[in-house]
Amino acid sequence: MGKQSSPRRVADNEARAVLRNLRVSPQKLNLVAAMIRGLDANKALSALSFSRRRIASDVKKVLQSAIANAENNHSLDVDRLKVKEAHVGKGLVMKRFKARARGRGARILKPFSHLTIVVAEKEEQA
Description:
The chain has 126 residues and is an alpha+beta fold. It has helices at residues 26-36, 41-49, 56-72; strands at residues 14-22, 81-99, 105-121. A 3-stranded antiparallel β-sheet has the order 1-3-2. Helix 2 (41-49) runs antiparallel to helix 3.
């Protein structure tokens, strides 16, 4: 008598990967995520490879993980994968203070983000 397994959160032709507590603001991360939304997996990987943004390498790792999950865990065809979702959530915010003139302090916010990428297998063209 074990605990019943929870139902899958994505469809049978989909796989996902999640990266939590990524040290970048959600606004900056969403710019990179928007760049790959709806693209084929291979095109998204090449777009992230040549992106000049610092966080693009971490997004590329998550996309590669989602592709590997699709291949190994759900036995999907890698050549037919596309990025179905790439959404960004807010994480915690570290609050720091920097000393300023006249004994004052300025608040510095260091935000964290969560990234979820869902890849789906494209249907056959009839």
